[in-house]
Queue: 2 jobs
Job 1
Amino acid sequence: MRQTYRFAVYALLALLPVAANAQRDSAASRAPRELPLSVTKPLRFTTDEGTWLSLDLSPDGKTIVFDLLGDLYTLPIAGGKATRLTSGQAFDSQPHWSPDGKTIVFVSDRSGTDNLWLVNANGSGARALTREDARTFISPTWSPDGKYVVVSRNGAGAGYNLFMYHKDGGTGLQITTSPAANAPFATSNYVGAAFGNDPRYIYSAVRTAAGGGYNQTSLNWQIGVYDRKTGKTFVRTQAVGSGMRPELSPDGKWLVYATRRDSLTALRIRDLATGDERWLAPNVQRDDQESRYSRDLLPPFSFTPDSKAVIIAHHGKIWHIGVADGAQTMIPFSADVDQMIAGA
């Protein structure tokens, strides 16, 4: 009996290291891999087209800034070879010129989560403007005086609201607050801010009712105007196909926004003095109002300084669209992509 007991103890002791190793192996297999990925090989090519290009035109009307595959590029307004401003594994996107043309604000995940960053016009001096955690930023723009960046920001399960950050940093100021879902005529999710020639008012797409899902003809987005003096938001469009991505002309005359025209996304233009509207472009980039719109409902675009044309990217190319007649002229570009990529 004593011999049988001794054998059982020895057998148990012999199994303990095996069990311990198995526990360690199991824990190691469950541990998440850390980012960034270890890059292993270069990816280099030249392209003359891109998908979902967010762009802005410099205040002097001479230079376009746009994003392509997570890097920022500049391009002469006449077209040609694009110059890469940023590089690396970070995903840089949604650039916008400051009113003095010296600085570009953009969204980047180079800190490990989305934040606002600033870079000089020549690509030097990249620096963080915000230091948030687990947030998403959409379509930053500048206040007309160039002192603040206004952006749509979400996080912690909440909808998007407008926030304002001083160009020199700070914790920022929340401008809008989404009301309760059952509030009458509630507006929520302020996406894609834009200023006209009166800094009192901020235009954006607002969601006027709950909704979502695929294969719908209208998803309750309209163009809203937030009054910074009263704190109230007024809905300015009632488009059947929703209203998205507002842009205002520098001369204060025009509002251009996107909407659905049957199954296609198109641009409408409104005379702000008379309220008259017409179609400007019948078929542009397919909007993202049926999905998560993490880079706006439509890529940002820009008026020329003389208010006579809109510069926009759609169907892989960059276009000049005349305000008077809607005539579209392609602005040719080529861009050298130079990335380091990892395995699967």
Job 2
Amino acid sequence: MNAPLPKVLIADDDASIRLVLSHAFTRAGFQVRATGAAGTLLKWATEGEGDVVVTDVMMPDENVFDVLPRIRAARPNLPIVVMSAQNTVLTAVAAAERGAFEYVPKPFDLDEIVAVTRRALEPARKAGGRRTAPASPKLNRPTEPLLGRSPAMQGLYRGLARLVASDAPVLITGEPGSGRTLIARALHDLGPHAEKPFLIASTAFASVGEVMERLTREPAGGAVLLEGLDEATPEVQARLGPWIDELDALPPRLRPRVLATAGVSAEGRSGEGAIRRDLYDRIAVGRLRAPPLRERPDDIPELLRATLSSLGEAAPGVDPAAEARIKAHDWPGNVRQLQSLVRRLALMTAGPVITLEAVEAELERAPPPTEEAGGIDAALADAVTIAFAQGPLADVHERLVEALERPMIRAALAAGGGAQLRAAEILGLNRNTLRKKITDLGLR
């Protein structure tokens, strides 16, 4: 006797989408029942109908994200696939928060959504009809931490949504300027421990030792980001492995989540610019890749407008020809380079709009950044970006100065053999000024 065909419940307010999906699932061997109302979907599901749900988010009677908890309460093992034209990281995380098996952005490929739906049924079949809902992260931030609706960013959003509720270490790879630090910040801010500290340790500077000491002495949960892990010296990498093991031994409420960023070629290498295998295995439990801007040119207009908007109401507009030229550029420095150029253009523009001629002149004037050109300039640019994101804005200058002075003074003291007079000479400071800074910063 043949097994009954699986039944899919389809919910979308667009009749044409319901029709196309109904035909595709019927051809794929499903029974289909479709509706344009969230209330009807809730009724069918809670009455026991359907083996899997494929639903849009925005419905005329109710937002499906408000309905899904009620469906899960009645049928915790029913797999749900969410599709949405609101293709943002918050949508992906909200879908995961409410127990969805997968989030599929619109417009979608029919073969893809059918394949995803088949995969959603597999856990239930293997468990004899039982399917455990994934852990639910808490959506803590109303603002959009990452921008872009391109396929490359959708893949990142889905990966981030799967990892955001976990405490597992995550390695984020990508080119300089591609937003690796912002991705790490989103993992923390959208997760269940957003109210706890988020500490950043640049492995290229002395700050990593300070952060290690602080978290060992006063653990408080939250997250620690090891920036530029592939740039750390062999000595620092050798220390990090045992230190991470020490953190793992802490009680869960005090254990910080370890995140790290690295270049695109860090994996599988040896020698300079590589991550030790034992350290890589500890940190790359979860992996995310920040896509370079050249892989998502359709996101450039949104990033351009967001950068101008951050400058306030006095910022100029952009001539369509200028926007087209900006979009056509290959941006070897990625989002950081784009934002820097747009801010510079806005500062120099006297008229109401940024012109094509101004864009051409700036692109010709500025040499393209390279991987090697990152270094301290890239670290400083990231520090400024992070400081503005953390707020309040009135404290940005003070926090940046402290973040830069601390490792600088430590390095000068080390170079001077611990003698404050010699360190003051190296830094070009009065000895009394240096002594006060050492006291204020709590340095030994």
